[in-house]
Amino acid sequence: MTAGRSGRISLPAMIWLILGEWRTQPVRVATAAIAIAVGVALGFGVHLINASALTEFSRAIAAVNGDADLQVASVSPAGFDEALYPRLARIAGVAGASPVVQLTAALPGDSQGLTLIGLDIFRAAGVTPGLLGQPDPAPQGAAGGGSGFGDAGAVFDEMAVFLSPSLRQAIEGGPGGRAAGARGAVLSLSAAGRTVPVTVAGTLPGVAEGRRIAVMDIAAAQWRFGQLGRLQRVDLKLAAGADRDAVEAAIARILPPEAELVTRESQSRRSDSLSRAYRVNLNMLALMALLTGGFLVFSAQSLSVARRRSQFALLRVLGTRRDALLIQVLIEGAVVGAVGALMGLGLGVLLADTALRLLGGDLGGGYFGGGQPVLVFAPVAAVVFFGLGLLCAVGGSLLPAREASRAQPAVALKNAGDAVDPSARPAIAPALALLLAGGVCAFGPAIGGLPILGYAAMALLLAGGVTAMPWLARALLSPLQGVRFAAPSTELAVRRLWGAPSQAAVALCGIVASTSLMIAMAVMVSSFRGSVDDWLGQVLPDDLYMRFAEPSQADGLDPAGQARLAATPGVAAVTFTRSLPLRLSPETPSVALVAQPIRREDPGARLPMIGAPRPIPAGATPVWLSEPAAWIHRKRAGDWMTLPVSGGQRVFVAGLWRDYARQNGAVVLTSEDYSRLTGDPLRAEASIALKPGADIAAVTAGLKAALPPDLAARAQFARPGEIRAIALGLFDRSFAITYVLELVAILVGLAGVAATVSAQTLARTKEFGMLRHIGVRRRQIVAMLAQEGALLGAVGVAAGLTLGLVMSQVLIHVINPQSFHWTMETRLPWVVFVVVTAALISASAGAALLAGRRALSMDAVRAVREDW
Amino acid sequence: MLSIRGLSRALPGGRVLFSGLDLDIAPGELVAIMGESGVGKSTLLNVIAGLDQADSGTVSIGGSVLSALDDDGATLLRRDRIGFVFQAFHVLPHLSLARNVALPLVLGHGDPAEATRRAEGMLADVGLPGRGGDYPRQLSGGELQRVAIARALIHRPALILADEPTGNLDPETADRILGLLTAQVRQAGAAALIVTHSEKAAAAADRALRLTHDGLVPIDPPAGAAA
Predict the structure, then answer these.
(1) Across the interface, do B105 and A20 touch by the CB < 8 Å criterion?
(2) In sequence order, what are the beta bridge partners of A261?
């Protein structure tokens, strides 16, 4: 006898048993592994996409900022007084300071925009050498640049501009061909509402690929683009050994409200906060998919354990300890999880790579502009997501494993089949406890600005819903229990489901998890889309809209131009608006400071107000905050706040309004207050009401003709319907990944239904053999199974729809407001409900029917004699 | 080898299955227990195997007192010293015959290759030579029970417990299996306790007992019924 003393299953025996089981149940094992793989792939893929996009975004910021140690930056494009520069340069510990003009600029026919930087090259050489231009060699025979300094003379030519390699490439690839980007070529550059001819002098070798930057002399930039006395940035180089904290403190003491100290850390936090909620939400949705995978593993393992009850009993009789069985089932789950998670990591890389190429780094969310991100592999995240996949699979195996280890071997060996007890009443208390805990979490606040408790609520509701399945299956089928059906197949189907609710629950577990999650997402997206649609109707009341092509900050109409447009024949009235980015704090993304011709006593005429506007105190400057702005900056109607413009202006929050266009918030001022506080008389957008009977095409042509030629080339006109279509198109694009997740949830759910139902059906071969013996016809059994499957699917859909609707309310009223800071009204996507109901019931009935045919193909005599 | 003293067991409702049972089985001795359905024969077997608990009394196997062992101890005792044969064969469908037979050795951390080699030998001993690579679904009921007997004996147990080993077999096959079981048990020198309804099986045993509410009562073998 070679027995060891541990009572644990030896490794070879475990391998025999696990591989043997998988050989007989490959589809179910594969479905469970795929479910885990899908969850891991989505989570890891989304993480890789975000990591790649953030890396790209940081690179873009670093390229524009050069190599400065510290930076003082303006909170809006209006800049700050240049008198700050010498004060900064004199601070102890500052070795060098480089003043910078930074403007968003555009070239004719170009919608991507570029960053125009004005530098003092002597200062920049010591602080941000990476932004210094390199003049092109002069053509043979030329005296060089016209400045008398040979090639180097170009550097001192006030209208000389140096282009980053990518920008130059783009210009040379445009309609002007190579000559348009060659040395000496004249470009028409628009920025701050002015268009100025500049001369190409060379390139910026220190700027990385993909960046669109042009550098020119700071004085010329200030003069030509109306920035005299203003700077947008001062780059600082610290002296060797300088105390960074002391320098930062000294800078903070002299900063005006219009400027802020930007460190690499604050910049990184700001770029992170830009898309944090979006990323966290996608990750959470992916984790929900992973959780669904965990439920499918639970489903598969429960069935497997139920089917193998007497096999485990035999192992116990042969001398295997209880905990060894527990470990065996857990290891089975862990191996499924590990295989699924590994597949998921590979799929995640593929998914991320494909999505980056097709949708960009923000997955269509519109958070990051600029270049195409390159996939960045994240090994730590890979380990984390592998671990999560494993955890879900092991977690899903835990209850079945406990069941396997607790079974009484003597009883299991005698009963050999499943131990169904129709008289047992399914418990509801644990489910109610979970649902209650979910409800409590749903009312919790955001943690660290993220809806952590909201997601905990969803997970608890999901767990509670699934736990309630046996009770619910019994409750839903109870009305049918008293009915006598003429068809024996229906009679048998109803009795079976009613009598074995725990078995029904195992099959329903995966269906309910995936259906509820998908329904919750579908309701949320439908509600969001419907609310956006309504909102568009409110904010687009006029007949025609005009704006300048991106970057819209580069252009603007002065008051004379505005008057010319208003006087165009056919125009009844024109409303001009302007929007500029304004940072209210160093660590949050900029809000939009919006000029709107609002009447103080009736803001609702132009803004979709939430709640009644507050009376404005005498002498106060009113602002109206969008929902996200109020949420992010913790303001309510009636509060006071300070805007960092004109040396800091105290303003009164006169009301809140609904805005789905700007996730980081918008602060609306009346047109007059905006001009007074910012000194910016330009307007970049116009909404035009036509006179009755006016021909819209003729009016559009008239408006174009009234614009200066350079602006006319960049002006875009659209009717409300077109803008609505574009906006909803953008909405759909930004939710593309959500639609993909929904589809995946449906497919995983359907696969889970098919695998579970077919496994349960095949496990009942002996029962079918018995039915055949007592005279039930083959087609009656098939009909019974189809009806059972359909009933099971119907119960699953009913539970999934109900749970999904509850979870959707958590998404709509908790997670969305806490993540994106906007509210919406519930809209139900009836078409999705009908499709999901039909698909799940058909899949369930179809899987049962097909599996039943397979089970019935076995000889009835042999079936009743089969032991396993 | 097996010693039972004052063993009692009642059902949860209070109905007494048996009480005050005494029984000794020596190595190489084969004892058959008969009785009406529901009298507690299988329960007695389960109590002896440590799969069920007695209300009172002791079971001692090779000097090990079962009640002194915890669940793990009883499990190890089963694995090392007891072999089982069931009415319903209980052969794992996804393992080959050789692996089914070798399972007790491999579960006890034996070398898988050596265990499989010994299993092939055991299969030959029970009349299934060269069938180690086959799977259970390819076998008849009688053949499956041969596999189960091989599995029960491969680790050379001190005690064989058999619960209706011929209950699922036709009379001819049952005779053959019974002959095989008694021969193998005697060859192995193990003590054996067979629970059965079959007069023939009882006649093949060294002693036959009837389990009643009053205890174990000896049965005289019917004339001419010996195997």
Answers:
(1) no
(2) A72
Provide the CATH number for the domain formed by B2-218 in this structure. Answer: 3.40.50.300
The shortest CB-CB distance from A410 to any of B46, B75, B114 is to B46
Span A517-568, pLDDT tens digits: 888 888 988 898 898 888 888 888 888 988 877 666 667 788 888 999 899 9
B106 CB neighbours in chain A (<8 A) are: 10, 12-13, 16
Contact B155 A21 (CB under 8 A): no
A220-253: b (≥16 Cβ within 10 Å) or e? bbbebbbbeebbbbbbbbbeeebeeeebbebbee
Give the span between the Cα atoms of A118 and A104, in whole angstroms: 12
Query: A557 forms bridges with which residues in the sheet?
Result: A683
Segment among A9-13, A457-461, A552-556, B199-203 with least mean pLDDT: A552-556
A349-405 pLDDT per residue, tens: 998 888 777 766 555 554 444 455 677 778 888 999 899 889 888 888 888 888 788
- Could you tell me if A24 lies within 8 Å of chain B, comparing CB atoms? yes
Residues of A in Cβ contact (< 8 Å) with B85: none
The pLDDT confidence band at residue A146, using thresholds 50, 70 and 90, is very low
- Is B51 touching A (CB cutoff 8 A)? yes
Q: Which residues in B lie closer than 8 A to residue A7 (C-beta atoms)?
A: 72, 75-76, 79
Q: Is the confidence metric ipTM above 0.85 for this complex? A: no
- Reply yes or no on whether the pLDDT at A822 is more than 70: yes
- The residue of chain B nearest to residue A319, with distances taken between CA atoms, is B79
List Cα–Cα distances, A579 to A537, A555, A594, A665, A681, in angstroms. Answer: 21, 11, 4, 12, 12
How big is chain A by its Cα radius of gyration, in Å? 34
Sign, CA dihedral A628-A629-A635-A636, equals negative
Query: What is the percentage of chain A residues whose pLDDT exceeds 70?
Result: 85
* Chain A residues 405-424 with a CB less than 8 Å from chain B: 408-410, 413-414, 416
Distance CA A464, CA A434 (A): 5
pLDDT at A150: 45
The alpha carbon of residue B222 is apart from the nearest alpha carbon of chain A, in Å, by 30
Contact A144, A749 (CB under 8 A): no
Query: Which among A2, A7, A310 has CB closest to B75?
Result: A7
Verify cis geometry, omega within 30 degrees of 0, for the bond prior to A541. no
Helix, strand or coil, per DSSP, at residue A266: helix
Q: Can you tell me the distance from the alpha carbon of B227 to that of B225, in angstroms, rounded to the nearest whole number? A: 6
Is the model's pLDDT at A295 over the cut of 80?
no
Q: Which of A193-202, A438-447, A590-599, A735-744 has the lowest mean pLDDT?
A: A735-744
Q: How far is A312 from chain B (nearest CA, A)?
A: 10
Instruction: Determine the pLDDT at residue A716.
Output: 84
Judged by CB atoms closer than 8 Å, whether chains meet at A416 and B141 is answered as: no
Q: pLDDT at position B226, please?
A: 42
Report the distance separating Cα B158 and Cα B185, nearest Å: 10
Cβ of A322 under 8 Å from any chain B Cβ? yes
**Chain A residue with minimum CA distance to B95:** A20
Domain ranges of chain B: 2-218
Residues A702/A704/A705/A711 CA torsion (nearest 10 deg): 160
DSSP class per residue in A794-856: HHHHHHHHHHHHHHHHHIIIIIHHHHH---------HHHHHHHHHHHHHHHHHHHHHHHHHHH
Residue B112 with chain A: CB contacts under 8 Å: 12-13, 16
Q: Which phi and psi (to 5°) does residue A295 adopt?
A: -65, -35
Please check whether residue A861 touches B, CB under 8 A.
no
Query: Residue A326: its chain B contacts at CB < 8 A?
Result: none
What number is the average pLDDT over the span B179-204? 85
- Whether the Cβ atoms of residue B6 and residue B55 lie closer than 8 Å to each other: no
